[in-house]
Amino acid sequence: MAKIWEYAIVGGGAAGLAAAVFCARSAAGDGVILLEKAPRVGKKLLATGNGTCNITNMYAAPARYHGKGAAAFVQSALEAFPPSAAISFFESVGVQCVVRDNGRVYPLCEQAGAVLDCLRLTLDALGVTQRCDAAVTALRRRGDTLVLTAGGEEIQARRVLIATGGAAAPALGGSAESYALPVALGHHKTPLFPSIVQVRTDTTFVRAMKGLRTDATVTLYHNGSLVAQHTGELLFTEYGISGPAVMQISRTVGDWERRKQGTLTAVLDLLPTVSGEELLSLLKKRQELSRRGEDFLTGLLNKRIGQTVCRAAGIGLQDDTALLSDEQLSRLCAAIKSFELAVIGTQGFGGAQVTAGGICLDEVDPHTLRSRFDRDVYLLGEVLDVDGDCGGFNLQWAWASAYIAACAATGGNI
Ligand SMILES: Cc1cc2nc3c(=O)[nH]c(=O)nc-3n(C[C@H](O)[C@H](O)[C@H](O)COP(=O)(O)OP(=O)(O)OC[C@H]3O[C@@H](n4cnc5c(N)ncnc54)[C@H](O)[C@@H]3O)c2cc1C
Hints:
Blueprint lengths: L3 E7 L3 H13 L5 E4 L7 H5 L8 E2 L7 E2 L3 H4 L1 H6 L2 H10 L4 E3 L4 E4 L4 H15 L2 E3 L4 E7 L2 E6 L2 E10 L17 H6 L7 E3 L3 E3 L11 E10 L2 E12 L3 E3 L1 H16 L4 E6 L6 H11 L16 H10 L13 H12 L1 E8 L1 H4 L2 E3 L20 E3 L7 E2 L4 H18 L4
Parallel strand pairs: 1-2, 1-10, 2-7, 10-19
Antiparallel strand pairs: 3-6, 4-20, 5-6, 8-9, 9-10, 11-18, 12-15, 12-17, 13-14, 13-16, 14-15, 16-17
The protein binds flavin-adenine dinucleotide.
């Protein structure tokens, strides 16, 4: 007779791997099977934090999560499994953690590969069966058990935890198909759009600054009203803007891109620590240097950024800056403090770190993550309509959701 597994976990990403550890710790590991469609588990995890894995964030709180009803929905999971619990969990599997700037937590060794290795080694030690190249294509109830179809084979389980992720980063396993199993059960999904993603803008001036990084405040205006703002590192690219400051507000761009209503403008303050007044008097003082336009801002801004800003303000690179009028100086000041770029859209799911949108939260119990369509099915991680800010919040959701789903599925205290 075919084995009936106690727990089948679909998806060997962050949430699925953690859920497998939790289930195996609470029940017996030989009753747990992890099914992953890719040849290896944890491909996306390896790419997190540019290969260093920003495991969690000490400031994880409901307000950092988005989606319809997400802030209220994530509360029980964050209370049951706060960032400190994530740190203790990782230390229990052998990953020593360190808290860095803005509450971001990383493995001390700065290797995402080590985080994955420690999770895999723990699963091996607990006796969990991991099956790769095993895409689950169907899930149905047969009496007391759930039957999964993976690669033509039938797998029976008493409880199923769906951790199939989202549509972001297809090169790392993301796919719109991630939602197919819950949708087949009767679940609905909200519109999907990319978040934590690079932004495409008008490139008339931007292209000349390609590859340059600077600290800036990025503000988004929708039809003239401020809708998002963040200060941090900005990167100019071939297609527009990127870097942490842009990633942090890119959800607004993704949402606008799917609606296509009105205009969205990004305004860059390229000297956020200097006020407009201070800047104007600095520029007046710099006129004493008697430089050409091409070097007027050299020493104040990155040289290439300075030259581009001058061009945008209508100041020629060969102009004698000692002769600039007050009106020209004000224009230059405005170009530095409010450099305007028409937003075109995002770089799509291909460039995105996370999917905004997902399985509707009112169809899942927030305390257990149990599906309202089958008492033995649980949904966790990015497949749900929950996306966090940039900075470790998404992995925190993966671990915390895995924890409460596993506690509920096993009826145990882990
Ligand atoms: C480049 C990049 C960097 C990132 N950096 C960070 C960071 O530093 N910190 C942070 O907090 N977040 C980061 N994120 C986001 C974070 O990685 C995700 O939010 C998180 O991995 C989601 O976990 P998950 O388990 O829900 O989904 P995933 O990690 O996407 O895992 C889902 C898994 O399910 C498998 N699967 C899908 N369908 C099936 C099926 N039918 N059958 C079997 N298997 C299936 C997939 O192949 C995949 O392995 C980053 C994302 C990217 C792309």
